[in-house]
Amino acid sequence: MSKTDISFRLVKEKGPYLENKKETRGFSLIHSSNPKLPFKEVLKEFYSSVLEPTIIHNIKRGQS
I need a labelling partner for 32 at 20 to 30 A (CA). Which of 4, 21, 24, 62 fits? Predict the structure, then answer.
């Protein structure tokens, strides 16, 4: 199984994330497809889950 982790911040951040500019939120998608799920499909899942405007800081792929 593979997974994709996305570190992001909301454009209009709130709470503790507003106070600490280095802190990011996280999104993980575990997929069992072989080969790995294309980035386009991962981003579709991400944006369907996170409904507010975001800034993506990092995308990592690995084994779950």
Answer: 24
Q: Considering the entire predicted model, what is its pTM?
A: 0.87
CA end-to-end span of the chain: 6
* Per-residue pLDDT tens over the stretch 12-48: 998 889 999 899 999 999 988 667 788 899 999 999 9
Beta strands in 1-64 (DSSP E): 2-10, 25-31, 54-63
Q: How far is CA 37 from CA 12, 41, 62, in A?
A: 30, 7, 12
Q: Give which of 12, 5, 9 is closest to 28, Cα–Cα.
A: 5
Name the residue ranges covered by the structural domains of the chain.
2-63
Is the torsion defined by CA of 44, 22, 16, 30 positive or negative? positive
